[in-house]
Amino acid sequence: MTTHATRPAEPRETTEGPVYTVTGGDWDEITQAAAERADDERIVVNMGPQHPSTHGVLRLILEIDGETVTEARAGIGYLHTGIEKNLEYRTWTQGTTFVTRMDYLTPFYNEAAYCLGVEKLLGITDDVPDRASVIRVLLMEINRISSHFVAIATGGMELGATTVMIYGFRDRELCLDLFELITGLRMNHAFIRPGGLAQDLPPGAIDALREFVRQMRKNLPEYDALCSGSPVFRARLKDVGYLDLAGCLALGATGPILRSAGLPHDLRKSDPYCGYENYDFEVPTTDTCDSFGRFLLRLEEIEQSLRIIEQCMERLEPGPVMVGDKKIAWPAQLALGPDGLGNSLDHIKNIMGTSMEALIHHFKLVTEGFRVPPGQVYTAVESPKGELGVHLVSDGGTRPYRVHFRDPSFTNLQSMAAMCEGGMVADVIVAVASIDPVMGGVDR
Amino acid sequence: MSSERDHRSDGNDGTTVNGNDPTADGVTDAALERAGGTGEAIARRRGMFGANNGSDTTGYGGLTRTVRMPGASARPYGGYFDEVADELEGALEEQGLDPAHAVEKTVVDRGEITFHIAREHLLQVVRTLRDDPALRFELCLGVSGVHNPHDTGRELHAVYHLRSLTHGRLVRLEVSVPEADPHLPSVVAVYPTNDWHEREAYDFFGLVFDDHPALTRIMMPDDWQGFPQRKDYPLGGIPVEYKGAQIPAPDQRRSYS
């Protein structure tokens, strides 16, 4: 589909009609030329994949009649990185390094869903220490907040509300600071590992969390004042991107889209994992089925996540953060070395100096990894975008035989056509922003 | 079909013939039992470290390992599985379809139930699962392909997960097709959500979903050749030089078979 037109406005004849390639501000010429040649108003517009308001490398193909979208299709695959295939060539533990990069705005959900799957295959789900589960919940809920802030911020930016963007990214930064304190990285953590966590919370984490919750409670009302209370913002989002409950279920839409249609479906309630049944929180819904409802839900879910984070801090008891089985637990101790994060020199000195068996064991576990009995499992977590499912198949080897991620962005993006067709071109942007697709997750 | 498979399983009487197999490390008793005679053999691995092209100097050349997936389960399945199986069988019988023809095998493993469905009856089974009030699996979670190149006649698998929001249940359907004839019906008419999922499975595995509205590639470029997630698809990686040594591409590195 590449064109090599030197003069952009020069039409290229194809079997489907003349094709214009627009690279700059030559729209006037295009519309004029199209109006002269075409016998109707119908124009097919290719939006993206490098367009600032398509949420990453998403290509939208819109058939428009005047200002109305008569047909909308999405072209994806521009960010396909073959992660599922790559996983088949790494050990089970190394897999976390890959899956965390899928939907890069929800790394902890990818890691948690994958690790819950590996643990189910190993049959050690009940052996994962409580402290590890509580910290997993804690990290996931902070991640839900940061993901929702990006959804709100980029959605606002695409509407031209740059203040919303600044506010959203300001608050997301607070989440990322916590991630950096706890895992050492702002993104791509690979912190949740099969059997538990890479390491425990660092000193000062609880104080930072308390400060975070306090700050969030202070900042959140600003969104109500800036967005929910603004007549312009409401008018722009209301009744745009409409998808009712039957449409959601037929198209497999989950997460805020499904809940905006009034169904309080949340895997944390209906199929709890990581001990979510022990936390007190609500699943907010609206019955507006539109973008504004989804925006309000995201704000409300941030509130609920703050409640869960507070409960996590109360539930944290001292204890291990990795299963006791030394055949699975990665035998590493991390410490800050001169080149950043690395293995603790004292720990290595201990292994190398005192026990030959420990050295062999360490070597085997790191290079070979552990074996996982054959079989297949499906585990799912409620990511900020919906049901994030993992289908894992093991052939009894040290590496996954097949990993498939059912990413909610991928499935939800399909509903774009149903939301946009028959609406205005400008509303496509609002509808896509309310779906909150992240192309890293869509394309994997 | 099943008698042929049983015959094949009888030929392999254990996981390994070599007592020194390092693979026995860390595998629990339950896992060994699961991997034992009851399972279904899908492949047989020889040697170690991928040294199977002639001059094997690893000393592991005598190793063989039979890969066995969990086999068919007997009743009771436990939990809500029996109810789902009863309702499904009853509903299929009502429609004049012998359940034994549609459901080839039922596997319960690790707290999950898998119905192996004959491809010609897939559409009727999913429609029943969605519409029967006692089943009501409203949400399809897509289709995932699996390639077992050594499982002759059943190389390609399409795995569906269905969730019932009404009853809070989850089941898995698995359809096996031969690589030479990778056709199975599309379920898009029943679950429109599978439109992109089936395109993805076609793109990566070459599974052809008949009657799909537009079965084209979705991730790879339109003119791409081959199906990248099949096991025999070459990765095409290049060796990386690191401190003067050549590190082979991931699929060329030695591995534990």
Q: What is the chain-wise order of helices and strands of chain A?
A: EEHEEEHHHHHEEHHHHHHEEHHEEEHHHH
Which geometry of chain B do the CA atoms define? globular
Q: Helicity level of chain A, as a percent range?
A: 40-55%
**Residue ranges of chain A: pLDDT <50 for 5 or more in a row?**
1-8
Question: Strand-residue fraction of chain A?
Answer: 5-15%
Number of strands of chain A: 12
Distance linking N and C termini of chain B: 28 Å
| Rg value of chain B | 21 Å
The number of helical segments of chain B is 6
Give the termini distance of chain A in whole angstroms. Answer: 23 Å
The succession of helices and strands of chain B, N to C, reads: HHEEHHEEHEEEEHEEE
How many strand elements of chain B?
A: 11
Largest sheet of chain A: 3 strands, antiparallel
Low-confidence residue ranges of chain B: 1-36
Structural class estimated from helices and strands of chain B: alpha+beta
Mean pLDDT of chain A: 86
